[in-house]
Amino acid sequence: MAQWLVTQGEHQFHVGGMSDLVRLARSGELRAGDMIQPPGTTDWLYVSEVPELRAIVEQNEDAPKKGALSLVGLATVGGVLALVVVAGGGLAVFMASQLETKVGPMIGEGGLQYSQMIVTDDDATLVSEPAATGAPVAELDREQPLELLAKRGSYYRARTAAGKEGWVGMDAVIPLYQLASPEVRQELDPLYNPDRYVEVANASWTQPQEQKGSDELVTVFNFMIQNESGYAVTDLVLQAVIKDAKGHEIERILLPLEGEVPPHGMTMVGTLATEVPKGKRKAKADPDAPPPKVLTEWTFMKMSETDPDLQLRYSAGAEVKMSTPEFTNALVSIYELRAVPNEKISGEITRAQ
Q1: Which residues contact 74 (CB under 8 A, 6 or more apart)?
Q2: CATH superfamily assigned to domain 116-192
Q3: What does CATH list as the number for 196-340?
Q4: Distances in Å between the alpha carbon of 112 and those of 26, 124, 141?
Q5: Best-predicted range by mean pLDDT among 52-56, 217-221, 312-316?
Q6: What is the pLDDT of residues 32-58, one digit of tens each?
Q7: Which stretch of DSSP H or E encloses residue 191?
Q8: CA distance 189 to 160
Q9: How do the domains of the chain map onto residue ranges?
C-alpha cells in the first residue's frame, strides 16, 4: 500500500493512505499547518492544501494563510530545517521542492508534468475495461508516470511510456496537479475531471412513422452539450437509458460522438450520412459501407467551411438504431470523454520532453 509521510514539527511518521489521513484529521491529530509528502514524490504541501482534508481541518482550526507563516509555523519549519541539515544536506530538496504556482513542468529530475499522474499503489494494474473484471494489460510499478487519455466513472484511461493503453482506478494513482497551488488545481481540474464540467441538456427524440413494423428502428435524438470548462472536450461517448411508462429499463445504448465541444461553449449534435459514390443511386443500405457519423454541430460547421457540399449529407440530431419500438422516457448522459489541453499547457509539455 502507498505510504504518505507526515511532518509535525521535528516528528515524522508514515500513514497507510488517504483513509488514514482523513481519520487523523477528524480526530484532531492532523492539523492544517502540518505537512505531508504524497507517495512517489519529493514534494511537500500543507494538510490544508489537500482537497480531501481541507474541510475537515478547517473545522478544528484556522488554516494558515497562503504565502505567510505564523510564528509557530516558522518555528516548525526551523525545526525541520535543523533536522534536515544535520541529516546531511537535504535542505534544498525539502524547501525547493515546493511546487510553483504556474502551470508547467514540475521541479525535479524526470520532467514530470502537472498533466500527468503517478502510480501510488504497489499492486496497480492497467486493465482492458473500466471495471474490476477487466483483463490485465500491464503491471504498473509504484511511482510510474502515466499519460491521461480519458475518464469514465471512477477510472482513468491511461498510456504508459512504453505505449500500452488501458484503464486504472482513480484510487491507484495521484494526479500531479493535486500537489500544486489552489490556482493551478482549479485551472487543471477539468483535465482530470471533465465530466464535472460537461452536461447534456434539452434532450428529445422522434421515431419516423414510416418505420413502424420494421425489425430495425432508427430513433433521432436531439440534444445540446454544454461545456463550462476552459478546455475543449472530445472523444465523447454518450449513454441513453431507455425506459417504459412504468420506469423500467428496457434498453441501454452507447453513442460515440465525433468532434469537439468548444471551451466555455455549447453545441447541438447531428448526423453526417455516408457519401454515395458518383453514378450510383441511393437505394438499399450497403452492408459494406461505413456507418453514418454522429458528430458535434460545432465540428461539422468547421468541416463545411472547406467542403460546403457536406451540407447535403447533414441532418440535425443523432440517428441511433434501436430495437425498442416505443418508449416513454430516455435519459441521455455523459459516459466517457476527454479534455484537450490548451496551447499553453501543450507547449510547456512539449518543451519539457
Answers
A1: none
A2: SH3 Domains (2.30.30.40)
A3: 2.60.40
A4: 32, 19, 16
A5: 312-316
A6: 778 888 776 777 777 877 777 877 877
A7: helix 182-192
A8: 21
A9: 4-96, 116-192, 196-340
